[in-house]
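User: Sequence recovery, please. Input:
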């Protein structure tokens, strides 16, 4: 009875340790101080939402939200320093370039 119980405990410990490693590789990152956060690197050649939001912050748009996203464009809407709504578009390619000729559509 004891060898069966010991092997059961050992196998469940191995299973749990492998599951935690699997979960960590799926996007969870650790800062080394016990804090974990979710971060997924975009596929090569694409822009992800966190990159677009950081670029919007640098452009002076706060509290941004996604209003459109497809394979070509990411559009965010937020507030500028004066509290007015502002919309900004980014190309969905590496580096998230701001679309200079982007005009706010009346649908948004």
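Assistant: Recovered sequence (108 residues):
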């Amino acid at each position: 009875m004891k060898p069966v119980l010991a092997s059961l405990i050992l196998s469940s410990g191995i299973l749990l340790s492998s599951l935690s490693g699997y979960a960590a590789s799926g996007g969870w990152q650790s800062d080394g101080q016990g804090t974990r956060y979710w971060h997924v690197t975009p596929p090569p050649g694409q822009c992800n939402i966190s990159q677009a939001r950081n670029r919007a912050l640098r452009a002076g748009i706060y509290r941004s939200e996604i209003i459109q996203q497809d394979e070509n464009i990411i559009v965010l809407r937020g507030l500028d320093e004066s509290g007015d709504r502002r919309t900004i578009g980014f190309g969905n390619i590496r580096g998230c370039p701001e679309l200079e000729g982007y005009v706010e559509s009346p649908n948004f």
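Confidence is low (pLDDT under 50) at residues 21-25.
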